[in-house]
Amino acid sequence: MNRFGQRNPRKNKRHVLLAEVNQRTQNKKIQGRLVWIAAAVVVLGIMVVGTHFATRSILHHAFFQNDDFQIKNIDIKVTGGVSRSEVLEWAGVKPGMNLMSLNLTQVRTRLGRMPYIASVVIDRRLPSTLRIEVEERQPMAKLVPYSSAGHQLAQAVYYVDGQGYVMKPKAGERLKPLPVIKGVAHEYIREGERTDRPELLSALNLLRLADYTTLKGELDLTEIEVQSRGYLILRTRDQGMICFRTDYLQEQIQRLRVILDHAKENNLFVRTVNLTPERNVPVTYF
After folding, report:
1. How many independent structural domains does the chain possess?
2. What's the confidence (pLDDT) of residue 161?
3. Which pTM value belongs to this model?
């Protein structure tokens, strides 16, 4: 301060200039560090990329281009009627392919898309064997759809397994002697897919339940008719007609057992039974 109590402007100016010089020096140091960090990152990236390509090249020579890993044996185990040639065709594999470069997930997916295939197990047996284990779907019934427009259908009969997967019979195949399910519209049938029609799934469940009860000898399990209102029609061996709801099948079978036992005790032949009401089941006799 001068003698009048005021700050010296020259001294203040020197302080400002000194601060600016210090700030510039600090900035240069930070910039230098950033340059070194960036250079280190670039060098590290080059090393990683180089290591990746070097490793990849080594793998290619050691495994993917190694003749020792060429497929020489394809061990196929099939549960069902699918042939070895069909499995090879659907899998898209053949001897001579490199076992290590083969994408097992893709092979499993290709096989799994086939309507006849229920499950697939596939693995490598080094150095040169590929093992494929296939389980074929087992049809539970024949499905005879109808055309809502009244047209003649190109595919008149399908197979359906216990889970509701729909399959076409193989070309030239003699149809299997299975129960027939009728009354399902053709537009609801999609080959190679599991049906979502509750009445069709219920018909399959009815066949399964009836086959494991004492009613098996008294019911005609060769045909089930699906009605448009969601009811199922099954017949007795004496041509009596039984009407089921699509739900609570176990309870309905139990009620039917009581009705047939009563008819047998009284030397009666059931003509119709309507199991759709929850109580007071209507029954008529021949």
Report:
1. 3
2. 94
3. 0.69
